[in-house]
Amino acid sequence: MGVRKAITGAQAAAEAMRQINPDVVVAYPITPQTPIVEEFAKYVADGIVDTEMVPVESEHSAMSATVGAETAGARAMSATSSQGLALMWEVVAATPGLRLPIVMSLVNRALSAPINIHCDHSDVMGVTTVGWIQIFSENAQEVYENTLLAIRVAEDNRVQLPVMVNQDGFITSHAVEPVEIFDDALVQKFVGVRSLDRALLDVEHAKSVGPLVLPDYYFEFKRAQEEAMSKVFEVYHEVGTELSAITGKQYPFFETYRIDDAEAVVVVLNSAAGTAKAAVDAMRAQGKKVGLLKPILFRPFPYAEVREALKDIPVIGVLDRSMDFGACAPVYSEFRNALWKLDRRPAMQSYIYGLGGRDIMTTEIEAVFEELLSGKLDPEHQRYIGLRG
Amino acid sequence: MPTLQEIALKTSGADARIVSGHRMCSGCGIGSIIKTVLAASDKPVIVVSATGCLEVVTTIYPFTAWNTPWMHVTFENAASVASGIEAAYKALKRRGKIDEDVNILAVGGDGGTYDIGFQALSGALERRHKFMYLVYDNEGYMNTGNQRSGATPFGASTTTVPAGKISFGKPQWRKNLVEIAAAHRISYVAQAAVNNTMDLYKKAQKGFNADGPAVLAVLQPCPSNWSFDSSLTMQYSKLAVETNFWPLYEIENGVVHINTKPSNRKPIEEFLKGQTRFRHLFKPGNEHVIVEMQKMIDDEWARLLKLEESGIQF
Amino acid sequence: MSERKTWQELELGVELPAATSLGYKTGGWRVLRPIFNASECTHCMICVSYCPDMAIPVAKSEEGVAGKGGRLFKGVVRLATNLDYCKGCGICAHECPSKAISMVREEEAEQASCKL
Fold first, then answer.
1. What is the ipTM of this complex?
2. What are the C-alpha distances in Å from B10 to residues B7, B122, B185?
3. Which of B12, B58, B63 sits opposite C58 (nearest CB)?
4. Which residue of B has its CA nearest to A27?
């Protein structure tokens, strides 16, 4: 039984970082991630943590210094959003190749242009292919727990890959919710200490990290990286079970809500899942059989488990908070991929919502359910929720 | 007082921090620079390379010429990666997880320092990380065949700003990295050249032992791309110093100190001739470029002398 | 060239143990070979300092070795060039103050050494 605090998603991420007390934190401020950095900086200034915090001059340097610190042997963390992620993309792409277990908070914000500081998922969806583990959080409690989980998954010997813990910008990061913070000592025991086996600062065992690799070997290195990604499922499951002992919660790859006899299911990530649950309840109260599937682990993508969960659902609406211009939206695409193998595939409809922080209402999700149940779908085209025109 | 004999033992023995078998071009100046600088550290050295000649030629998987901990990430972040290593070092030492003292050396070419790595360097200096930044300056992006950088001198022909019928090559002078570094008010910045091993070694020692960050800029004539016979690398470095093209000086706690003052400054043509990248300057119609170049060099030198004489602090 | 590793056999991350380049003999690049005339050498260490390939080994010598003018040079002395790695750039020959090194075409030097 932990202590309940009224805190924002950003503060929840900072609380997790406080308990982890990493060796190094490197970050550059960007709205709406800034409060994470500010909270943690206060912990440093007050001696609540003894982390070495480096206030760098750009996000590219933030990820670079985090990579340097982690390679040196430190446990290093960072945080960013949107343009910051875009600026550090080059180094973000290099990190999984270097097999560095960095955990970064990503506060989801729309990508320019136009410039917009509010929530959507275009930032994270632009970086799904390079090999970071990606976990999504519906609320501040999940942000907190996912961050603790992420450290252990990342640093596991079978994995050694970086993790992004996502939360919705402003909606989760800046809204106050009750969050249960678990006992410092229990959490620290769970998180443990990073091994120095690979530390560059271990000067007795000098090594060269990041050499040039030509066409004769590059492919093999990437295959090895993919193998590590495939191990994430079993590690995530094991670590989740261990964390359950402290929190009493479960850590599945995705959450299902009232889908057992559902005739229509909506798929949606992060905070809008909370909104969708309210919509599900409202529909169910009217006797309509609807449900929700909320992805949590998005990379690696649990195709087999998703297929198993949704195989008997007649119709699925996938709500994406980002677009893939000229192609199918990212979450919709993955779900289509997952359901491809079924002999009898559910009908599917792609929806785009919430770009640039546009709110989504329970009534709008109820309207989606009505549409799904009516069968009036347009599978060749994505639909837009709350768009004028 | 170090001797060349002591330095030789360090650079050529089994404990040498960089070894043979690398793929530097025959006659490349970087080999002499890096082995001398590495030898100047009395503690183990952690090296961070930016993408560039040194990184590529020393680490083509599965071969590495580094006999000291080394890492490379991308082109522009040697200084920021080094910042992270330094932070890790402080944290791990403080927490008792490691006990060895180390020096941290970030190395970039002029491309990875004057241009794409400029911001990371500036940030690292401003934050006062304890590390040394070494730039081996061959005045262009030489690993990829001589593209222009912010360090390319006025009048040089590069593949991206070539000399041609209506162009004499680079129309701008070059950045003064030493002064830019000094403007960050760091305690030690120095300019050295590959042909003067002792001067380079002593400056590297000072840099490693400096209070806070240090920057060391070393001229590295490039036989492949400046284009001259591989045996003439040191000769061109010497000419660069003798023509005042590349003065040897230090800025210690903000005060300029010039190490070598040629009594009879050689005309810049002595340095330019024989280098293919400057060959076009000797064609009729381009005389004015050499005249202008000479003036720039003389003005810069006069200015440097004044800075030293005045004792003014950066 | 040895058998290339499979992806399963690779090191974790992109990491290499130190100094593996010693397994790559750049001596094969040579067009010119430095011929060292030890009787002219003063062991000034200039060639050693300059060699980009660390191809001139040195050793401590208490007894000293004979060099220029028949004198005995003690302390640290240079040894024969390591032809496994010397690329024949010619910097040593060009810079030697005693002209103790000359550059000879590799094929000729090879033939000359075979004849011995």
1. 0.96
2. 5, 32, 32
3. B12
4. B84
